[in-house]
Amino acid sequence: MTLHSNTPGNIVWLNGTFDVLHTGHIKLFRYARMLAGQNGQVLVGIDTDERVQAFKGPTRPVNSLSERMLMLMSIKHIDTVTPFSSDWELETLIYMSKPDYMVIGDDYRGKRIIGAEHIKEIVYITRDEKSTSNIVNR
Predict the structure, then answer these.
(1) pTM listed for this prediction
(2) Which among 128, 119, 39 is positioned nearest to 79, based on CA atoms?
(3) Which of 21, 79, 92, 137 is least buried, going by the fewest C-beta atoms within 10 A?
(4) Does domain 11-77+88-137 have CATH number 3.75.10.10?
């Protein structure tokens, strides 16, 4: 006999560039799915190409927005992927989503987190030793 829960799940928000996907990203998405639960949603905001270039330089992103979105939408732990091009747009997406949790790297502790006032709880995770910048710079 299989039991199915009718309880609503949590809404979990993540955002980032997600340029060159690596195992650290997958661990992040798996953790977000665990927080969301069976009936919840994992929502991912992704920086536009122009925004990535503004923050990381003219050689980035390695993969275009459409390529990055396709890769993210192919990951079973993720329900929705939405691009954003400004802090205001990111904050609006978070406000409209009404997330229960935001999952973010612990390197953001003590820093301003866009949209934090619209999130019930921020969950900091220890960053994996891998990072897209380290991979690209090799």
Answers:
(1) 0.86
(2) 39
(3) 137
(4) no
